Amino acid sequence: METIKVGTTVRLKSGGPIMTIESFATRLAGADIMTSKNVEDKSRVNCQWFEGPKLSKGSFDVMSLDIVASDNDTNKPLGIYVG
Question: If DSSP states are collapsed to H, E and C, what string results for the chain?
Answer without folding.
Answer: CEECCCCCEEEECCCCCCEEEEEEEEEECCEEEECCCCCCCCCEEEEEEEECCEEEEEEEEHHHEEEECCCCCCCCEECEECC
